[in-house]
Write a structure and sequence with these properties.
It contains 3 helices and 3 strands; from the N terminus they run βββααα. It has 68 residues and is α+β, with helices and mostly antiparallel strands. The chain has a 3-stranded antiparallel beta sheet with strand order 1-2-3, with no helix packed on it. A hairpin with a 2-residue loop joins β1 and β2. It is globular, with a radius of gyration of 15 Å.
């Protein structure tokens, strides 16, 4: 249940993240992993132009994933 922008979890409150954040993360990391923009556009049902315009971040290639 969402309560003021947070999900109630057994160990505390977890911030709510809209679904588009997961989509953006998936597309950005798929591109940075070497997948072609046309393949990623097909996977997510979008155009190559949109993928190139909104999801190609050169700085992601040098970023490191946090170790949870």
């Amino acid at each position: 249940m969402v309560e003021s922008g947070y999900f109630r979890a057994s160990q505390g409150l977890i911030p709510y993240l809209p679904p588009y954040i997961c989509r953006h993360t998936f597309i950005t990391w798929a591109i940075s992993s070497g997948n072609s923009p046309d393949k990623v556009a097909l996977w997510v049902g979008d155009t190559v132009q949109t993928i190139l315009q909104h999801y190609c971040h050169p700085e992601v290639v040098n970023a490191e994933c946090p170790d949870f």
